[in-house]
Amino acid sequence: MIALVLVGGEGTRLRPLTYTTPKPMLPIANRPFLEHQVEHLRAHGIDRIVLACGYKPDAIRAHFGSELEYVVEPEPLGTGGAIAYAAREAGVSETFVACNGDVLTDLDLTALVAFHRDRGARMTIALHPVDDPSRYGVVATGADGAVTAFIEKPPPGTTTVRAINAGTYVAEPDVLDLIPSGGAVSVEYDVFPRLVGQGLFALADEGPWRDIGTPESFLAANLERMPRGGLVDPTATVDPTAAVEDSVVGPGCRIEAGARVLRSVILAGALVAKGMTVDNQVVGRTGQSVW
User: Fold this and answer.
1) Helices (H), 188-233
2) CA-to-CA distance for 95 and 114, rounded, in angstroms?
3) 18/275 Cα distance (integer angstroms)
4) Among 61, 146, 152, 224, which one is least packed by beta carbons within 10 Å?
């Protein structure tokens, strides 16, 4: 089965890190985020992974080489346009998976595909329940999982719907006919509404899920994916009098005497100077807090 992964965005909310590194290659627990996603897809039987690239594709290609396939957009095409362009370039002609390249999840993709096929769906959206739906667009479904409505950022107390679009989809190739070539198309706003009542389904999964696209969520994703107690790369140097607790310390870092690193991410090559305290921060190579 083939998966199309959308990795073309510039990751503006994660600047300055994304000035030099594309978002999918930023480290989560000292591994590029995209390694986690590829591993997850492979575990669910995906044998072809095609990246819909845009911003800094060479850095991704240099890391993964021939393990993955690459389609580079001629211009920004939006989520729907990127899916369609990559699918056409890759010759997709059967059921396929599409997913955002910035969502760290343990979604049961096997169950999502089985649900899609059982319903005879044209497209199926993975959903994730949240406590406060007012920050998101939520998806209402019927008893059989058919999508009935999309509600954008409902005010608190106005709906009982708690499930949001989790950024992973299963689709049939005929859905691509709804996406014209040559311009930007949003799958969320231009494609989904046309499929309501026409074979669009959704399935909620309550497993771990996190969009890594903000500084807060990038830090949280690292802390969630590290081993209990923290993760220090073997090439990092930590002075015996320094304290590193519940943190991720990257390759080549140096933590000097008396420094304290608490629930933070120290990126590759960074220095935490003598006596310095870093708490709930991301520290870059300059030794300064990135956020």
Assistant:
1) 192-195, 215-225
2) 11
3) 29
4) 152
CA of residue 276 relative to chain centroid, distance = 32
Cα–Cα dist 188/150, whole Å? 9
CB atoms inside a 10 Å sphere around CB 245: 12
Measured distance CA(137)–CA(278) in Å, rounded: 35
Q: Among 10, 13, 33, which Cα is nearest to 214's?
A: 13
| Structure tokens, 200 | 């669009």
Q: Which amino acid belongs to residue 234?
A: P
Predicted TM-score (pTM) of the model is 0.91
Structure tokens given for 168: 């992973």
Tokens representing 159 are 């709906």
pLDDT in tens, 25-84: 999 999 999 999 999 999 999 999 999 999 999 999 999 999 999 999 999 999 999 999
How many degrees, rounded to 5, is the angle at CA 247 between CA 40 and CA 23? 45
- Identity (one letter) of the amino acid at 67? E
Catalytic site positions: 153
Q: For residue 27, which phi and psi values (nearest 5 degrees)?
A: -80, 135
Torsion sign (Cα): 13, 14, 19, 23: negative
